[in-house]
Design brief:
The protein has about 270 residues and is α+β, with helices and mostly antiparallel strands. It is built from eight helices and seven strands.
Length: about 270
């Protein structure tokens, strides 16, 4: 565990970074110095400074993904000293600051490690598998007409709060990177539950969970063994309770789907 510094003095660290020129190339660790870092700069800003130095020396800069740098988009997915997003709980990589490390520390930086997230270059991984799961059913397609008046569709407060908690998922993939089985159950359960808890999500509820789970399995994500590394690493603190909720929905949907298929077959046989 890296102890945080309380000093306002600049600190210097060594970063041990994974370098990989392409998806089919062998990777390796390389070490670089980050000197005189302001303790209040973010981890990504530190990487920017290192890249400026590398560019000035005519060397290839470190490739890493980023966008909002405000903990909203989930793009900045790094494993820092063995932990997805770094040493703190409930924050993304871009919200990790250099004051979290001691002067002289050696910091290991890697991409998220999972077969469904192949490395594209250095610290950048292809997480389009999550997009495919979302496209399989993480939406509402039932036409509802014009927007209803406020409060015309009653929603219990507990359900509304839980749906908002599930919808906080930013799809970063930390749950997959933290899980020894590379399971995506926390992500999928959040995307399933955010609709299953609301009236608008009921018409497609069964098909949604069946399609999303089937797509998750087909993409090579592992099984959940309920050790909860996923929720511990989640920057939005999504609860693993959503996994149990989704499992319940999946079993009920599977039963109803099998019953419908059996009834349809019986009706066709008697025609």
């Amino acid at each position: 565990m890296v102890a945080a510094t309380t000093s306002t003095q600049p600190i210097s660290v060594t970063i041990r970074v994974w370098r990989q020129s392409g998806p089919d190339q062998a990777g390796r660790f390389a070490e670089y110095k980050a000197t005189n870092c302001n303790p209040n700069m973010s981890f990504l800003e530190m990487l920017d400074v290192v890249n400026d130095d590398l560019t000035a020396r005519g060397e290839e800069p470190i490739a890493f993904a980023h966008d909002c740098r405000e903990g909203i988009c989930g793009t900045c997915s790094l494993v820092i000293d063995g932990k997805p997003h770094g040493p703190h709980k409930g924050v993304a990589s871009c919200q990790t600051y250099m004051r979290s490390f001691t002067d002289g520390a050696v910091i290991t930086v890697e991409p998220f490690r999972a077969a469904p997230f192949p490395v594209l270059k250095d610290l950048i991984t292809d997480r389009s598998a999550f997009d495919k799961i979302q496209q399989a059913g993480g939406f509402i397609s039932i036409r509802t007409g014009a927007a209803p008046d406020a409060n015309s569709v009653p929603v219990p407060k507990e359900n509304a709060d839980l749906a908002m908690d599930a919808a906080a998922c930013i799809g970063c993939g930390a749950c997959v990177a933290a899980c020894k089985n590379a399971s995506a159950m926390l992500f999928v359960s959040a995307k399933v539950s955010q609709y299953a808890l609301l009236p608008q999500g009921q018409p497609e509820r069964d098909q949604r969970v069946l399609n999303m789970v089937a797509t998750m399995d087909s993409l090579g994500f592992g099984n959940c063994t309920n050790q909860y590394e996923c929720s511990a690493a989640c920057p939005k603190l999504i609860s693993h309770d959503f996994i149990a909720r989704m499992n319940k929905d999946y079993l009920a949907a599977s039963f109803r789907n099998a019953f419908k298929s059996k009834s349809a077959a019986a009706s066709g046989g008697g025609a």
